[in-house]
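Task card 7
Instruction: Convert sequence to structure tokens.
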Amino acid sequence: MNPPRDDVPERYRFDLSRIYETPADWTDACEDFREEIATLEALADVDIEEANDLRALLETTEDAHRQKQRLGLYATLARDIATDDDAAADRRRRFETLDADFTAAVDAVRYRLAATDRDTLDAAIDALDEYRRYAEDFREQSRYALDPSVAETVAAYEKTTDTPTNIVRAASTEDFDADPIEGPDGDQVEITRGNYISELADPDREYRRRVYETFRAELDRFEATITEAVAGKIRAAGADAEVRGYESVRDRALRRPSYPESGLRCRLLEEVHDTMLTSVRENLDSYHRALRIRRERLGVDALRPWDRRVSIVDADPPTVDYDEAREHILTALEPLGEDYVETLEAFFEDRRIDVVPTQSKRTDITAYCPSSAADGAYILANFREDVRSTYILCHELGHAMHVEQHRSGPTRYATAPRPMSEVPSLLHELLLTDHFLDVGGPLAAAARNRVVSLLAGNLFRAARRSAFTHEIVTTVESGTELTPTRARKAWADLQSEFEPLVEFDDRAGRNWLYGWTRELYSRYQYVLGAAGALAVRDALRNGPLTTDEYRSVLAETGRRSSVETFQRLDCDPTSEAFYERAAGVFDGYLDRL
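Output:
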């Protein structure tokens, strides 16, 4: 059983007073934010006649985003460390209401730009200096702005568009009730969304089979429900895309807000997404080789779906406590420069990481890293004293350090386009792998196993999920009903293409049911992140990229498009060679096995 929160030393718990000293201060800040929203609404009603009008509108928008980020960060973290606290739940709900009102106000800003004479708007933007990039992005967004009366109607129904996701979440959490199974030691084990992946890493193959079949069979009960919910999610996205004038659901999804949200929506061209899918699928040989190696290392006649997570190295997994993990991470990241490591050390000391699982803490995830420009990042972790937890912590620290680089600038640019967001985190994991390989022994063995799983998952399995998402989205967009049978066939075909060496049972086509609480078209960023991280690691090691240049790129991710940012790192996601090179590096890791 997890310990009570008060039994955990303070240094392993969040200090949320750094954001707001008391909940009452958060409440006061809500009132200030409400006033800022009113100011923004008033400015959005004023015609833009010159640059000063536009600057005032954008300054208020930026400041409101800064306030929103802080309020959301505190409300989210306070709820997630005390899920049974009604007051924390109430704060989160109040923030969501404010956020909806703020979203409507920002939509009005976009419409004001859309309603402004083009020559007048162009002249105003040309006269701006430090706000020019921000203004140009808002001008692009204004193409999809709605008339306020229409926007008000859309907003009235917008919250209902979350219903499909809520249904999927309920099916995989609250309503999920798999029967306990017998563990390797004879104990009864409850299989949940939170422990499913870790239990599949157990060396006992028969136990892994029971874990897999128990979890998947319980999900199968909701097949029709999840299929309809995902179809509803696609239809809702399609309706919004049509109303706003996007070319497709994918076009809409590839213009997602950057993170943390500052008002920017950095577009990724659909052609890049197409190139990624085509290129990865043309370079599956190295992934198939990894599967052959796995089959040989496990000594089985055939790989089964419950064999894909277990270690393939001949060493017992080492125990790594949190303080040891911290020292390993700090050493591993030394190639990123002394200043970088000093910033990381300060992050550890500032109680920005909530380390261990505790009673009433959110434990359905291993870790995540929300942030605000004003306060930086915080990591909610559930550290388990193993190598996997060490890697996940190191990954989230990549997000945190990215935030630390770009938050030194103004809020409007203290952000990152989604396609770029995974590069720093996956680079962290690659550097930790290099460090563990240098250390040798059980840590090196664990690192060899981890890096194959890391790259296989982010390069190939994420591409498979991306391809599946695109296929079912286009199915729904064409007016064809998404039925369980059609979804099964689409997934089974992709499994045959990506994992021909794995023998799935007769329910293989239903393996797509897990993991649909996220936004549509979110997985591609992991493919770009892995390919980018591999390229950056080589460029830092062999040139031409220096650590100072790398940190400079991280500091300016909000100032350039996604493709331009990748190109500054000597990468080109528009080129098939980018993905072919990544597959080749993955092949090199297989050689080291």
